[in-house]
Amino acid sequence: MISFNRPYLTGKELGYIRQAHQRAQLAGDGFFTRKCQVWLENKLGTKKALLTHSCTSALEMAAILADIRKGDEVIMPSYTFVSTANAFVLRGGVPIFVDIRPDTLNIDERLIEKAVTRKTKAIVPVHYAGVGCEMDTILKIARKYQILVIEDAAHGVKATYKGRELGTMGDFGALSFHETKNVISGEGGALLINNPKFIERAEIIWQKGTDRKRFMRGEVDKYTWKDIGSSFLPGELIAAFLWAQLEKANQITKKRLKIWDRYHEAFKSLETNKMLRRPVVPINCQHNAHNYYVILKNKKIKKRLIRKLEILKIFVTSHYEPLHKSKFAKKYCKKIFYLKNTNFVVDRLIRLPMFVQLNMRQITKIIKHMKSFLNFQK
After folding, report:
1. Where are the beta strands (DSSP E) in the chain?
2. E-strand spans in 26-78?
3. 3-state secondary structure string, 259-304?
4. Which residues contact 96 (CB under 8 A, 6 or more apart)?
5. CB neighbours of residue 154 within 10 Å
6. Spatial CA neighbour of 149 closest among 209, 109, 186, 103
7. What's the rounded mean pLDDT across residues 92-117?
8. Is the distance from CB of 26 to CB of 236 less than 8 angstroms?
9. Which long-range contacts (C-beta less than 8 Å, at least 24 apart) are formed by 170-174?
10. For a pLDDT cut of 90, what percent of the chain falls above it?
11. Residue 298: is its pLDDT beyond 90?
């Protein structure tokens, strides 16, 4: 059996968890939390990093910091996970869905300005598959209309746009360390605060609405309730696990890129013969091999291929069901643009197995059966 995903261990996770226990501090914001946050700040180049329970939590913090209120509009793609929208709906915001580009499957930056109104509060680009959105254009629009940019970089650890790490270009960036991501902690995430004016309030919100961070630094003699907030920080066991992964982030990325490149080269002939379309990575982007997908000719072939591979115990999967098609979106989203590319992709895209332990024998088997099936479809 070839599973779609398998969580990877570097070998040091359990040892660091043991160390966390020996330090007698299992609650959050301890030794390993600080090590992870300093790593993110130094390696990614963000002003401040705060570990969170998940990327969802990071987005929810960003929505609070952006002061999203009832009726505020937030521009984002529909082709994304529900957390991208939920974080803002929870604050009363209204998602405004914009179509994706046909090449990268990222939000189409050429359509964003048309969606801006006097109610627009933020733009949320989603860096699909670890390939950067056209951030220069997005940031230019944001500056023109004085709106915030919140990068959903759930796929983006160790990927760059024009040499800049994903998640570090907008006012905020949200990372994911879910077990399906490149660097993992089971569940987990981080909020990157790139605009320094938000750092102090972010720390308060992160610490349940108190100024406990200032107390820990010796800046005040006691901490008190200062703002709204919640328990966004993870425990030390999660941070200890994550630290083992961050130490090996470069090696993990290299191994995944090797698998990605093997797929990409193997499917070149199928793309030439118009049997599928491979991922597109612009020259100004360095991706991180978060996933490998192909776009097939139609929905019927997609269903047949998934079923065929399932019989062979090779498990592939679709990706997002577009948010704009859900009943909930129809209730809460007052304005929906025509999303031609989003509708096209969701009916045709499949993701292939991608995890560090995937060996060349397994990859060759996947490629062989996909080629056999698709060549027969001629």
Report:
1. 48-52, 73-77, 94-98, 120-123, 148-153, 160-161, 164-165, 172-176, 189-193, 276-277, 285-286, 293-296, 349-351
2. 48-52, 73-77
3. HHHHHHHHCHHHHHCCCEECCCCCCCEECCCCCCEEEECCHHHHHH
4. 73, 74, 75, 76, 115, 120, 333, 335, 337
5. 31
6. 109
7. 97
8. yes
9. 170/123, 170/125, 170/135, 170/138, 170/139, 170/142, 170/194, 171/66, 171/195, 171/198, 172/58, 172/62, 172/65, 172/66, 172/148, 172/198, 173/46, 174/55, 174/58, 174/59, 174/62, 174/150
10. 88
11. yes
- From 313, 266, 336, select the one nearest 98 (Cα to Cα): 336
CB contact at 8 A, 226 and 204: yes
CATH code, 249-376: 3.90.1150.10
Sole residue written with tokens 């733009």: 123
Nearest to 165 by CA among 108, 127, 198, 199: 127
Name residue, tokens 């982007």: 285
pLDDT tens-digit readout, 45-75: 999 999 999 999 999 999 999 999 999 999 9
- CATH class held by domain 13-246: alpha beta
The full set of domain ranges for the chain reads 13-246, 249-376
Q: What is the pLDDT, as a whole number, of residue 105? A: 98
pLDDT 10s digits, 347-378: 999 999 999 999 999 999 999 999 999 987 76
CA distance 127 to 134: 9
Q: Are 301 and 289 in contact (CB under 8 A)?
A: no
CB 176 within 8 A of CB 187: no
Amino acid at 271: E
Per-residue burial over 334-372, b if 16 or more Cβ lie within 10 Å, else e, is eebbebebbeebbebbbbbbbbbebeeebbeebbebbee
| pLDDT in the model for residue 344 | 96
Q: How far apart are alpha carbons 273 and 263 in whole angstroms?
A: 16
Q: Encode 280-303: b = buried (16+ Cβ within 10 Å), e = exposed.
A: ebbeebbbbbbbbbbbbeeeebbe
pTM tops 0.90:
yes
